[in-house]
């Protein structure tokens, strides 16, 4: 079929849809426009270009075998007419045309379409504060912005930097600045913890602690009120509950989220959701069946909540692009939605997750609980290993898994575990399914009882009322208020492990090795809350069972044990 | 409930079932017997103990926090009576008793049970050949055997070794001997390739090539006919199609599979399958509802074929143990079966898989195809990366995923991908589901289009007849017979890549860069089979589309490209 296909936007989804369509229907004429000069690049690689890990911006725009994905590439290799520096001005849905302007020549052209694809992406939000437009204030908008940031770094003009927003991109940029350029970097975040939408406070504390050890400074629960400077940025003024603080800086990076680019679609009368994204169905069709949309400008279905949500990720854009390519050629492929899987590497620490945090689950109306487990990422007797920390979020009653998040120095090992859970999310797994999950096993890679199975086991015990656990922030709050009168902190490890804590906190910290507990119940008060702790949470769970069997009712177990408290910086100082 | 629970076998499943039961029902009396002196150890760690990576055998028998899991540990920490060096002689199902003998004192005792658990494990097969019982011939039966092997290595008495069997344990032992002890090691395998039951010949060639580079010698398609020596092993005689060969050696390790230990159960009249494993239902009950069994002595359901199979893996034993523990206490947990996920690390190369290979799928009656893809394990612009090779096995028509296997230097990254596919296997995923699989994405961990998505995409194209691919062995066969008269080898890369091959194979090797192909069709013959090749298989697929559109019918595409051929040692030598 000699159809005309026009694709607006040529970064991630656009090229994928265009090329898939052209392969399925070699007769089609596929034209792809983009306002930018660079097309088909890996925007997620920008922090690695800024850091210098990726030496040349062209690498982000190249294939694995070093072919630059520019207009000639699309013409010769893909049979697609790519037009960079060309802006789509309007869509005439009645005539089925797009009016486009060449940004270099100013020439305008009307392109006819049989099917149209909107891959217009998103724009970084800015802050409605004075000074946000000063030179030296950047948003990580596109590869051109990245080139400008790196030029300033290369010129040696950045001794200090402030990053606003402790989400993925903000923290990746902070690492890029501090790690490779030695920039004195501060991160300002409105929420009380880093990565606030995707990590619980307990796991977030682990990441924050690592970043602080790498000399990144944080202002959490803080808001930038203005940016000042003479002709360029010189300082950032931050407001907290305690008052105002001024941070001197040479560079400001704003990373406070993105807004879908939907002006063109709105002007054409296409349906846009109250949250601002284009409304599409499972086949990625907008309210006009001849117009498809996907990637950062569209909303998709959250597979956990069943509700539409906005998830601007390059990986989703690519998969949606293929679905659109199919549908452009009459193959009724569907994109069912996403559970929101993510991962991030920050120095030598990694975090990953899928689905909802406990807070997000509560906000979505679930009666949820969460539990943290800790275990070596591979057999404990294998030479190279690291502790992994995983948190499960599940629904009470049904035992449905709503989310899982984790932190580990072994990044691939962590991402592999979250990936396995993510793969299951469209099937609405239960906690029991995690207990039984079959993962490849060998000592260099995991334990015979993998941490994902343990996560299911511990989650199942909590669900069935056989275990009750607390997370590091809750422990820290209890311990901060603990004078021994209300709470009995019981260390279930052997004496040498408990010794330093007994000395530092007499009358508050107590020790009965778990193997002796059944015979020493007389030492455990029945009128106080009992907080059980061991190294990883396994022995304190055994202790919990003993106390529960002996009729104790107000007992909690520090999930993941001292390993987890220590990682989160919530262990009592000795 | 004050029930008597007797558990026979205390290595993997036994302790798990016993401890879970005791936690759920603290009133129960749980007695656990084992013939061996060591209990509750990680048998899968034996090669790492033999290599010396694990310095002390006790480490394999310890918790993460260095507590030895011996009888006092089970008594004090778990409330379980563990009795090492105690053999179960018989079961009286009518009286519900077990007759047991202490192997040190010879004392016999009759233990009453309300519920009985058989965790009797398996025994390594031996070879019915002369000399198999000579000193210096070992099977990797248990930790005691490992201690004996390592003692001989430590004594410096092993310059040369022969491993019989190129399965997981055989190859892991070969690596342990060659890597850490510098032993000159030969592996003899009856099948024509290594890891023959779990890897296709194409992927197996990748592993074999790596092991050969590390100076491990192979006799494939060969059979040990006798073992000779005066008072101890001195040589192994190997028969091949070409005749007999004698290999001088100081040590022989037999690793030719295991047999379930079912004598006790057979004598008690419990149902045993024709394949030799105990028959159990989903709740791990034998034909006697008061007797449970699991681990290496029982058969489970293969989730791909739906048929019973025998899969002796420590990871499965642990999960089954928990299910049995539940059922001992009236919780009707179920173990639905397994898809057969596995992984192995051999020097710096790793392999992993789940489900069926193409050969196994054909044997199970599926009309299956397979396809290999190659891609960097993480973003191609990210500094540290390695090529990953994944093979998909799927059913024609339905597109059902029957298995997936892979090879990569980045082991965790590979195992993570297979783990995600493995997680899906109980849900009978289709190839399309792999295309859409949501994995956490960030450049340090993967590409925006993850290799699992690519595997689904390529599989889908083959399924729909839009691509036809060949694997490395097929390419090697075609190329070996290629004088240019029957097959046209068309390199779709740019000229400099193709140049060495054009020079080495004039008239056989041809080059048209894919971007020029549409305009140079006159150079492509219509009377010969066309074999397309590029670096990774992406451009040759584009070329395939062009040729198919131009009416060519006998065209195949080298799946995974030159990267895959090279990895498997099947690339033309230049």
In short:
The structure is a homodimer of 574-residue chains. Helix content of chain A is 30%, strand content 25%.
CATH topology label of the largest domain in chain A: FAD/NAD(P)-binding domain
Q: How many strand units of chain A?
A: 30
**CATH-level-2 architecture of the largest domain in chain A:** 3-Layer(bba) Sandwich
Q: How many strands, which pairing sense, and closed or not: the largest β-sheet of chain A?
A: 5 strands, parallel
Shape of chain A: globular
Task: Find the biggest chain interface.
Answer: A-B, 101 and 101 residues
Strand order, sheet with most strands of chain A: 3-2-1-7-18
- Based on the structure, what is the oligomeric state of the protein chains? homodimer
CA-CA gap between termini of chain A? 75 Å
How many structural units, i.e. domains of chain A? 4
**What CATH first level of the largest domain in chain A would be assigned?**
Alpha Beta
User: In percent, how much strand structure appears in the residues of chain A?
Assistant: 25-35%
What would you call the structural class of chain A?
A: alpha/beta
Uncertain segments of chain A of ≥5 residues (pLDDT<50)?
none
Mean pLDDT of chain A: 95
């Amino acid at each position: 079929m000699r159809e005309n296909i026009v694709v607006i936007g040529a970064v991630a989804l656009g090229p994928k849809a265009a090329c898939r369509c052209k392969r399925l229907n070699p007769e089609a004429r596929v034209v792809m426009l983009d306002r930018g000069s660079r097309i088909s690049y890996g925007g997620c690689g920008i922090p690695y270009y800024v850091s210098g890990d990726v030496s040349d911006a062209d690498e982000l725009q190249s294939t694995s075998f070093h072919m630059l994905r520019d207009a000639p590439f699309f013409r010769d290799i893909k049979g697609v007419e790519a037009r960079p520096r060309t802006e789509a001005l309007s869509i005439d849905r009645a005539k089925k045309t797009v009016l486009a302007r060449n940004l270099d020549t100013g020439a305008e052209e009307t392109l006819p379409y049989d099917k149209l694809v909107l891959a217009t992406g998103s724009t970084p939000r800015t802050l409605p504060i004075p000074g946000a437009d000063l030179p030296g204030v950047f948003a990580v908008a596109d590869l051109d912005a990245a080139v400008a940031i790196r030029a300033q770094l290369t010129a040696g003009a950045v001794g200090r930097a402030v990053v606003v927003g402790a989400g993925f991109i903000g923290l990746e940029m902070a690492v890029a600045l501090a790690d490779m350029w030695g920039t004195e970097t501060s991160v300002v975040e409105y929420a009380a913890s880093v990565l606030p939408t995707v990590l619980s406070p307990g796991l977030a504390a682990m990441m924050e602690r690592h970043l602080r050890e790498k000399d990144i400074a944080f202002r959490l629960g803080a808001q930038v009120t203005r940016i000042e400077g003479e002709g360029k940025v010189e300082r950032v003024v931050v407001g907290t509950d305690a008052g105002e603080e001024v941070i001197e800086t040479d560079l400001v990076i704003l990373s406070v989220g993105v807004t879908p680019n939907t002006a063109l679609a709105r002007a054409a009368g296409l349906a846009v959701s109250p949250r601002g994204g284009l409304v599409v169905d499972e086949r990625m069709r907008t309210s006009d069946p001849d117009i498809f949309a996907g990637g950062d400008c569209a909303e998709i279905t959250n597979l956990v909540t069943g509700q539409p949500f906005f998830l601007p990720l390059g990986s989703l854009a690519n998969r949606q692009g293929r679905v659109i390519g199919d549908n452009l050629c009459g193959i009724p492929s569907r994109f069912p939605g996403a559970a929101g899987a993510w991962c991030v590497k920050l120095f030598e620490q990694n975090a990953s997750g899928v689905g909802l945090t406990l807070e997000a689950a509560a906000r979505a109306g679930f009666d949820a609980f969460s539990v943290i487990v800790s275990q070596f990422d591979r057999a404990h007797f294998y030479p190279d290993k690291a502790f992994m920390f995983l948190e499960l979020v599940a629904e009470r009653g049904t035992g449905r898994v709503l989310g899982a998040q984790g932190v580990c120095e072994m990044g691939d090992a962590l991402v592999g575990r979250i990936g396995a859970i993510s793969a299951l999310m469209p099937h609405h797994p239960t906690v029991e399914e995690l207990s039984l999950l079959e993962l490849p096993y060998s000592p260099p890679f995991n334990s015979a009882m993998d941490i994902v199975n343990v996560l299911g086991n511990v989650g199942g015990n909590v669900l069935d009322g056989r275990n009750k656990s607390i997370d590091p922030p809750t422990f820290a709050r209890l311990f901060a208020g603990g004078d021994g009168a209300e709470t009995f902190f019981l260390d279930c490890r052997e004496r040498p492990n408990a010794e330093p804590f007994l000395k530092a906190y007499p009358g508050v910290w107590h020790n009965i090795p778990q193997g002796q507990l059944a015979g020493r119940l007389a030492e455990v008060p029945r009128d106080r809350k009992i907080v059980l702790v061991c190294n990883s949470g396994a022995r304190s769970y055994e202790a919990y069972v003993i106390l529960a069997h002996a009729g104790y009712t107000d007992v909690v177990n520090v999930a993941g044990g001292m390993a987890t408290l220590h990682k989160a910086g919530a262990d009592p100082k000795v």
